[in-house]
UniProtKB/TrEMBL annotation:
<dbReference type="InterPro" id="IPR036291">
    <property type="entry name" value="NAD(P)-bd_dom_sf"/>
</dbReference>
<dbReference type="InterPro" id="IPR013549">
    <property type="entry name" value="DUF1731"/>
</dbReference>
<comment type="similarity">
    <text>Belongs to the NAD(P)-dependent epimerase/dehydratase family. SDR39U1 subfamily.</text>
</comment>
<dbReference type="Pfam" id="PF08338">
    <property type="entry name" value="DUF1731"/>
</dbReference>
<feature type="domain" description="NAD-dependent epimerase/dehydratase">
    <location>
        <begin position="3"/>
        <end position="215"/>
    </location>
</feature>
<dbReference type="Pfam" id="PF01370">
    <property type="entry name" value="Epimerase"/>
</dbReference>
<dbReference type="InterPro" id="IPR010099">
    <property type="entry name" value="SDR39U1"/>
</dbReference>
<feature type="domain" description="DUF1731">
    <location>
        <begin position="252"/>
        <end position="298"/>
    </location>
</feature>
<dbReference type="InterPro" id="IPR001509">
    <property type="entry name" value="Epimerase_deHydtase"/>
</dbReference>
<protein>
    <recommendedName>
        <fullName>TIGR01777 family protein</fullName>
    </recommendedName>
</protein>
Length: 319
């Protein structure tokens, strides 16, 4: 099938494009910029201005909507908060406008959401039916994002909304940021360390998105998280073990993180303990259900600087 991905240039979209292509699908991106040398066909859009290449939607049998300004980048100023929201709801409004027009074949839209919807869950394991328990910035943002996807279903499309957990990848996102201090020997749990972190290996996420695209049994909201969330302390410990580094420092107090990060400290100090029961009940099999295995698999594929230097020296000598 032909799959159109908005935000396809990002962390998830790049990997998903590879997974879809390997599975025999044709992929095109919808991007704000036409980058030279892009590995796949790209249609330009400007969600803020409400413009999109008119050939974009007619290309597709299905759409994956991943576009949105990155919540982990930049300070949460009033202008940035507005951008976080507008970059999501404007894109969906534009897609809805194009999908309402006749003359296209799209039947399925997979529109990203996030477990930020649930706010701070404490130790309670939340399911897709749990009402948002908090009204922090991410919960409010995600509610508005999901609401903006509702009109797509009214067009008669099959709409699937994966509520994505913390994506584990070495290419970006939270993991490199969490691993940096651990690698340097400064790793420590954050705040109480008891806040839950519901994660998913990027390859499992992309296989889940592929299943959602290709199998009609998927409809509505699903938590896109692995079945074994970890507390921040357990996550930090597992990361240190996989990286073969000691954890010597005490927890970093919450007030220091609040001083350093401001409102954004909610991203690391609030926890989300999120259930994967619904995707498991649909028959999805995780390749990486356990944290340690997921981290080991990721770091096993990481380049080894010391060895490559040695290999480089050897190959230089033999040439
Ligand atoms: N990574 C995670 O841990 C995680 C967790 C939960 C939810 N999610 C959500 O899943 C989606 C994909 O995640 P990701 O990690 O791949 O995100 P990402 O790397 O930040 O990529 C998102 C893409 O959105 C587009 N974008 C950025 N700013 C924009 C703006 N102001 N207006 C319109 N488009 C903009 C960009 O594409 P162009 O520059 O090509 O336009 C960018 O490549 C995001 O919506 C994210 O919020 C991610």
């Amino acid at each position: 099938m032909n799959v159109l991905i908005t935000g396809g240039t990002g962390l998830v979209g790049t990997r998903l494009s590879g997974v879809l292509t390997e599975a025999g699908h044709r992929v095109a991106h919808v991007s704000r910029t036409l980058a030279p040398g892009s590995p796949c066909r790209t249609f330009q859009w400007d969600p803020a201005a409400g413009t999109i290449d008119p050939a974009a939607v007619p290309f597709a049998d299905a759409v994956v909507n991943l576009a949105g300004a990155n919540v982990g980048e930049g300070q949460w100023t009033a202008a940035r908060k507005q951008e976080l929201l507008a970059s999501r709801v404007d894109g969906l409004a534009l897609l809805r406008r194009e999908l309402a027009k006749p003359g296209h074949r799209v039947r399925t839209v997979v529109s990203a959401s996030a477990i930020g919807l649930y706010g701070n869950t404490g130790d309670a394991l939340v399911t897709e039916d749990t009402l948002p328990v908090g009204h922090d910035l991410l919960a409010d943002l995600t509610q508005a994002w999901e609401q903006a996807a509702v009109p797509l279903a009214a067009l008669g499309l099959r709409v699937v909304v994966p509520r994505i957990g913390v994506v584990l990848s070495l290419a970006g996102g939270a993991l490199p940021a969490l691993a940096g201090p651990v690698k340097l020997g400064f790793g420590a749990p954050l705040g109480s360390g008891q806040q839950w972190l519901s994660w998913i290996h990027i390859d499992d996420l992309c296989r889940l998105l592929l299943a959602m695209l290709t199998d009609d049994i998927w409809q509505g909201a699903y938590n896109a998280v692995a079945p074994n969330p970890a507390t921040n302390a357990a996550f930090t410990t597992a990361l240190a073990e996989v990286l073969h580094r000691p954890l010597l420092l005490p927890n970093i107090p919450a007030f220091i993180l609040q001083l350093a990060m401001g409102e954004q400290s909610e991203m690391v100090l609030t926890g989300k303990r999120v259930s994967a029961a619904k995707v498991l009940a649909q028959g999805f099999a995780f390749e990486f259900p356990g944290l340690r295995e997921a981290l080991q698999a990721l770091y096993a594929t990481a380049p080894q600087p010391a060895k490559s230097l040695v290999y480089g020296a050897e190959s230089a000598r033999s040439e």
